[in-house]
Structures are given as structure tokens and as C-alpha cells.
Amino acid sequence: MSKTDVAIAFRFHESVGLVVRTADVPVTTLRCDCPLSAARFALILKLLSVIYKLVQSDSYATKRDIYYNDPQLFGSQKTLDSILDDISCMLKVPRRSLHVFATSKGLISGDLCYLEEDGTKVNCSSSSTGKGVPDVNSRLMVRKLWDTLHVPVFALVDADPYGIEIMCIYKYGSRAMAFEAHSLTVPSVLWLGLLPSDIQRYRVPEETLIPFSQADESKLNSLKSRDYISCQPAWEREIETMQRLKQKAEIQSLASIAPHFLTRVYLPNKLRYGGWI
């Protein structure tokens, strides 16, 4: 697929995020006379067979479960993930409807209780927060809380390009899951911190800052070129600040100011005085 193909396949919708453009979407063609196509078609049929059995028995499996049932067949986890996304998009159903889910890595904490389908009560005050690049289940949960409770959603991420990327996935979605954007994105997400401008504002010690790498520079340039960033002037200014400083900071760097600075000073002041963008 060329860069032009990718550009016309997705569009940015301010109230939804990244969505698939229904017209002119690039189509992958499998040919029976091509060995590579034949192999991929066989894997699609295999995975459809697994999905059929899961749906029929009303049971669920993780992507890793399916892969490790026959790792030699799929070759890599990435291959299975790609085929699963293709099937989901082809059938126009979310992946959870296929009874296949990713191993969850998001956590949740706070004054919230809810009931699972089997009646199990979950008390979120004994858990923690989300972490890292969000999986689909984490994004679904945040979207569900936003839809149900109508609460503001704030993002607290590292002041680096990958922290911004994580926040953007929650707010705007990703190309890989653009066909599910309406049920996964939370367009109201606000950037609470750690802002690049906070590094100077709070005089974060120089020894805790990390110099930019070439990968960081490339990621930041990629972020700047995205349509949804241009719709957020305040975000653009913060990205420009980061690019000018050529340094990044983790949330934990605030502990170098004082052990409880994050929880007793930084977050309370941010929330009290509207220090988000």
C-alpha cells in the first residue's frame, strides 16, 4: 500500500477521531495462483473456523491463546493480529463480536463499582490506573465511563512523543482500529500533564530530563503532521516547546522536586485552577 493509498483511506472527524473513508478504501486482493495469497487465504479460513467455534460455544479466547495453539502455522503474533483485523473489518463487526480479545494491560482505580455479566461485583478502588499504549478493552472502558457517567476525562502522560501518542489514541483512535472509532474514541479527552511547558514552569531538575533521540524526533514530526493536532493550537504549542527543548520528562521526574509533589501539589493545583489544555 502506498502513502497515497493510506492518505485517502482515513479521514479525521473532529467529533469522532480517525475514521475509515468509505469511498476509495484500498482493497487487498488474494489470488489463488499466488503462493503468498494462497497461504494468507488459508490462515483467514483457519481463523474463521476458530471464531465460528468460539461464537457457537459462547466462549472467548485471547489472541495469544489462538497463536500459541499453532505458532508454526501463523508464524508470528503480528500475522495473526493483522488477519484478525482484516476479518473484523471485512465482516463490519467489532473484534469483541468475534469472541477474541487482547490480553488486557489497562488498569482502573477510583470510587467506582460495577457488575460483570456473571454478577461479579468489581470494586475499582482496589485497582490502579491505565498504563502504556491502550488496548481495545481499556479504550472501551474509558468510552463506557464517559458515555454513562458524563464525566470529564483527563490524560496524565509522560512529556515525550510517545506519551502524546498514547493520549491521541484515547482521544482520536488509531488507523488500525479506525473502523471502530465510534465506539472507542473519547473526543473530549483533555491533556492534564505532564506538559512540556511544565518542565520549565515547575523547574524540573535538569538531571532528571532525558535528551531527545532520533526516534523521538521522528515521532514528534509524525505527530505534528496529523490533521487532529492542527485542530488543537494549544497542543501544537506544547509540541513546539518539546521540539525546542529537545528533552523529555517522565511523570516520575516530579518526585525529584518533592516525594509527594505529584499527588499533593501538581495534580490538585492542575484540577483546581484548570491547568489542562
Helix content: 40-55%
The largest sheet, given as strand count, sense and whether it forms a barrel, is:
2 strands, antiparallel
Give the ordered list of helices and strands.
Answer: HEEHEHHHEEEHEHHEHEHHHEH
Spatial gap, N to C terminus: 36 Å
The chain-level mean pLDDT equals 83
Low-confidence parts: 1-8
Taking strands numbered 1, 2, ... along the chain, how are they ordered across the largest sheet? 1-2
What would your notes on this structure say?
There is one protein chain. The chain is built from 13 helices and ten strands. The chain has 277 residues and is mainly alpha-helical.
Tell me the layout of helices and strands.
Blueprint: H1 3-9, E1 10-13, E2 17-20, H2 35-56, E3 61-62, H3 63-69, H4 71-74, H5 77-91, E4 100-101, E5 113-115, E6 121-123, H6 136-149, E7 154-156, H7 161-172, H8 181-184, E8 190-193, H9 196-201, E9 210-211, H10 214-224, H11 227-230, H12 233-245, E10 247-248, H13 261-273
Parallel strand pairs: 3-4, 7-8
Antiparallel strand pairs: 1-2, 5-6, 9-10
Helix pairs in contact: 2-5, 7-10
GO cellular component, one term: nuclear chromosome
Pfam families: TOP6A-Spo11_Toprim, TP6A_N
Domain Topoisomerase 6 subunit A/Spo11 TOPRIM: 129-271
